[in-house]
Amino acid sequence: MAESALNLRERRRQKTLRRLTDVARRLTGDRGFTGFTVEELCEEAGVSRRTFFNYFAAKEDAVLGFPVRRDDDAIDAAFVTGGADRPPGGVSTTLLDDMLAFFIARWGRLSLTASEAKRVFAIIDQEPRLHTRILQLLREGEQTTIALVERREDLAPGDIRASTLVHVVGTLNRIVAEEYLATHGDAPPSLDDFADRLRERAAIVRALFA
Among 34, 65, 89, 102, which residue is least crowded by beta carbons within 10 Å? Predict the structure, then answer.
C-alpha cells in the first residue's frame, strides 16, 4: 500500500512538473519570456504560486525544464559507492566505466524528444536571459559532478583528475545527445541506443590515449 501511494504521488508530481514546463514554454513562445508573470503561468497551469516554487526556483527554470528536485540521489549514491581497486594515490580501475554509467543513468531519467529539444533551443536562441541561465545551471551541475568524483575517490578538492574526467565524459555526453536527438525524430528515447553511442565514443578516447 505504501509503495503504491508513493508511486501515485510520484506520477502526480511528474504530471504537474510536465504541465508547468509545457505551459511555460508555450507562453514564452507566444509572448516572449518577459510577456507573462509567474502568477499567469500558475493560472494557466491550474496550480498555486506556492506549488510552482515547490517545483521550480525561477520562471527561467520552468521554461528550461530544470526542477528544484531532480531525484538523482540513487544515481549519485551508486556512483559514489562504486569505487574499487584503488591503488595508493591513484583512482579506481572502474572510474571511467562508472562515470559513463552515471551519465547514461541521468539520460535515462529524461523524456526529451527531438521536437521538444528543438523547441527549447529555439526559445533559448530568442531569449538571452535563458541562455545565461542554462549556462549557469550546466556549470553548477558540472561542479556537483566533480565533487562526487572527489568524494568517491578521496581526492582533494580541486584535484585536476576529477575535473578532467567530468569535462571529457561530459563533452562526449553532449555530443552523443545532440547526435541522438538529430537522428531519432519524435521516437521515445532509447536508453540502450544512447548508452551504445556513448560507450563507443569512450572506447575511441581510450584507444587514442592508450
Answer: 89
* HSE toward the beta carbon, residue 163, CA cutoff 13 A: 8
The CATH number given to whatever domain includes residue 147 is 1.10.357.10
The CA distance from 52 to 190, in Å, is 30
> 22 and 3, same structural domain?
yes
> 50 and 77, same structural domain?
no
Statement to judge: residues 153 and 204 lie in one domain: yes
For the CA atoms of 147, 148, 149, 154, the dihedral, rounded to the nearest 10 degrees, stands at 80
Q: Are residues 191 and 104 in contact, defined by beta-carbon separation less than 8 angstroms?
A: yes
Rounded distance, CA 196 to CA 59, Å? 35
Domain membership of residue 104 as a residue range = 70-210
- Report residue 149 as a C-alpha cell: 568524483
Global pTM value: 0.82
The two most distant CA atoms of the chain are separated, in Å, by 58
65 and 89 assigned to the same domain: no
Query: What cell was used for 118?
Result: 528543438
- Tens digits of residue pLDDT in 168-198: 999 999 999 888 877 766 666 578 888 999 9
